[in-house]
Design a protein that fits this description.
Layout lengths: L23 H6 L4 H7 L3 H11 L11 H6 L10 E6 L8 H8 L1 H15 L3 E6 L4 H16 L16 E6 L9 H8 L23 E5 H18 L3 E2 L2 E2 L1 E8 L5 E6 L4 H8 L8 E5 L7 E2 L12 H4 L10 E6 L4 H15 L5 H21 L2 H13 L11 H15 L1 H7 L22 H5 L2
Parallel strand pairs: 1-2, 1-4, 2-3, 7-11
Antiparallel strand pairs: 5-6, 7-8, 9-10, 9-11
Helix pairs in contact: 2-6, 2-9, 3-6, 3-9, 5-6, 6-9, 12-13, 12-15, 13-14, 14-15, 15-16
The chain binds flavin mononucleotide and iron/sulfur cluster.
């Protein structure tokens, strides 16, 4: 492991007062679009091999091999292929893609153009979260510059005859549109409801055509890999999780922000060296990669932030996007979990019963516990519910429900005493039965089930 210089943030100074938006001229003057020229000289299969050899794993959450994903796109073209760039970034604790786009948008555009050459995509759509107004404008301006300089449209990429069009598509602000097939539905102008798979997007994605879907940060690694080679990329990170990574640090730390380092740094290092240490009290817990991944506990500061250690030793779903929400000793874990579950209940698209009903049921139980009326059976019910929802138990279409489950599972497992204290054998207080809007709505069947 050796991280000696910034890679993805090489044009973005750590000192915020020095940061600026890198336009086309500055980008080219600092070596930009060199890798694209190189890619034009390579057969598509060689580009894919280079990316596969680098070991680059997707930075959007699942950590799937980028090169392998590209290789699934049919080599024989029978119609258009599409690239969808996932810039939806709506999970609490994640804000790294926005940081990259806001400062160095041409790095993304170069990554897009290379990915399109590798997978013979004709059109790229950058699907950006609705609330990212500024970032969308930055991208639209950068795209104008890129079109004017022959990167997209016209006579093909830099006059090569290999034509690629690129558009910014603004979402309407739903978390579920970050799930790749929900994104495809939304892009096609429909409600953002995830699709059952198979068929996978590589075979039938956008407009039922072969489609690659990649995260912003994943694509931004690609120009660097082409320029400096897979062996260089592997000098950073761990053998199974190579390369640089952005860590979004928020919560009770002195210097919240986005920091670049290599995969495999410890949680302790991320908090104390990158984010300036704890604020307001000693360390208690940290969301490890956006709240869907679950929570790392008090005794887990030595966990390596890579795709495997967080999962196998850390007991979480995975590293996710490495968006850490750090919590100090004064954090109420029951309240924190209720906030997470409230988010999932609100964002569930409603197609699958275990997700739609289960998450709302969980939210009501947690509300009741926080109202001082928790009992031991509530805790058992929460743990039973979390086991029934998600792709892993095979009851839902998409992974949003797994996020609900893993947050609940890891919060309760790792902070069991705190939950148990609020859930004694007999309820400490009985809330009078009343009709109220919102949290204590006892008139619904689910409400009466949970009281
Ligand atoms: C509920 C949900 C929300 C997601 N949101 C995002 C997102 O905002 N950005 C993203 O890149 N991936 C998100 N993903 C993961 C995508 O489905 C997909 O795996 C990813 O975009 C693939 O890109 P990558 O291989 O480059 O990581 C989400 C997944 C789920 C289940
Ligand atoms: S798991 Fe939840 S969000 Fe995903 S498709 Fe089913 S209901 Fe919708």
């Amino acid at each position: 492991m050796a991280f000696t210089e910034p890679v993805l943030t090489k044009r973005i100074p750590l000192d915020a007062s020095q940061r600026k938006l890198i336009g086309y001229d500055d980008y080219v003057a600092t070596g930009g679009y060199k890798s694209l020229k190189q890619a034009l000289e390579m057969p598509p299969a060689d580009i894919i091999k280079t990316v596969t050899d680098s070991g680059l794993r997707g930075r959007g959450g699942a950590g799937f091999s980028a090169g392998q994903k590209w290789s699934f796109i049919p080599k024989e073209k029978k119609g258009p292929h599409y690239l969808c760039v996932n810039a939806d970034e709506s999970e609490p604790g994640t804000f790294k893609d926005r940081y990259l786009i806001d400062h160095d948008p041409h790095l993304l555009l170069e990554g897009i153009a290379i990915a399109c050459l590798a997978t013979q995509c004709d059109i790229a759509y950058i699907f950006i979260r609705g609330e990212y107004h500024y970032s969308a404008k930055v991208l639209e301006h950068a795209l104008k510059e890129a079109y004017a300089h022959g990167i997209f449209g016209g006579d093909g990429v830099l006059g090569s005859g290999k034509k690629v069009e690129c558009y910014v598509h603004r979402g309407a602000g739903a978390y579920i549109c970050g799930e790749e097939t929900g994104l495809l539905e939304a892009l096609e102008g429909k409600r953002g409801w995830p699709r059952n798979k198979p068929p996978f997007p590589a075979i039938a994605g956008a407009f039922a055509r072969p489609t690659v879907i990649n995260n912003v940060e994943t694509l931004m690694c690609v120009p660097h890999i082409l320029e400096r080679g897979p062996a260089w990329f592997k000098t950073m990170g761990t053998p199974s999780s190579p390369g640089p990574k952005l860590f979004g640090m928020s919560g009770h730390v002195n210097n919240p922000g986005v920091y670049e380092d290599e995969l495999g740094i410890t949680l302790d290092y991320a908090i104390n060296k990158l984010a300036g240490g704890m604020k307001g009290g000693a360390y208690k817990a940290s969301v490890c990669g956006g709240i869907s991944m679950g929570i790392l506990g008090t005794n887990q500061l030595d966990i390596k932030l890579d795709f495997d250690d967080v999962r196998f030793r850390g007991g979480c779903l995975g590293l996710g996007t490495a968006g850490m929400i750090v919590m100090n000793e004064h954090t109420d874990m029951v309240k924190a979990l209720r906030n997470c579950v409230r988010f999932y209940a609100h964002e569930s698209c409603g197609q699958c019963t275990p997700c739609r009903e289960g998450s709302n049921w969980m939210r009501k139980i947690l509300d009741r516990i926080l109202d001082g009326d928790g009992k031991a059976a509530d805790l058992q019910m929460l743990m039973e519910l979390e086991k029934t929802m998600g792709i892993m138990p095979g009851t839902t279409i998409c992974g949003l429900a797994d996020g609900t489950a893993w947050a609940t599972r890891t919060f309760i497992n790792k902070f069991y005493d705190e939950f148990a204290l609020r859930c004694p054998e007999a309820p400490t207080k009985t809330i009078p039965l009343k009709v109220s809007s919102g949290r204590l709505n006892v008139l619904t069947p689910m409400g009466s089930n949970t009281r």
